[in-house]
Specification:
5 strands, alpha+beta, three-stranded antiparallel β-sheet, about 140 residues, elongated, about 45% helix
Length: about 140
């Protein structure tokens, strides 16, 4: 799982959420739980914007209060980070997967629920293998 630290600040009867790793991220909620729930959406928007702008995604820094990204978002994030690290463009990934560019665009779209076999194939095409483990909550 990928989790990012957040700062929770009381603000006018609610809770303001910011992130040291994503300065553009700001959201709020009436309660702590609501603020943390909205933070998930805010992280997804920030990550999607950085992917669209072809910017790096920060590695999570240290912090006590954290927001865990949903599994699908985490997989997309890992794929994008791996592609950048390995110097694999979307066009090159499409070539390696023997597919069209829009299919790769969907793999990197946080609003699209890609199938696991497609995600596995994408990682394999860039020389990686996804390993899943289970931990007690």
């Amino acid at each position: 799982m990928i989790s990012y630290p957040v700062t929770l600040t009381p603000d006018d009867g609610g809770i303001l959420v910011t992130s040291p790793d994503f300065p553009e991220l700001t959201t709020f909620g009436a309660t702590r739980d609501e603020a943390l729930m909205y933070a998930i959406d805010a992280f997804e928007e920030a990550i999607a914007a950085r992917i669209a702008d072809r910017e790096d995604l920060p590695k999570p820094s240290k912090g006590r209060t954290r927001v865990v990204l949903p599994t699908q978002t985490a997989l997309t994030t890992l794929l994008y980070q791996t592609m950048r690290r390995e110097g694999v463009t979307k066009a090159e990934l499409a070539r390696r997967l023997h597919c069209h560019a829009p299919q790769v665009d969907r793999l990197l779209d946080l609003n699209h629920a890609s199938r696991m076999d497609q995600i596995d194939a994408a990682f394999s095409a860039i020389g990686q293998r996804l390993v899943v483990t289970l931990q007690a909550a």
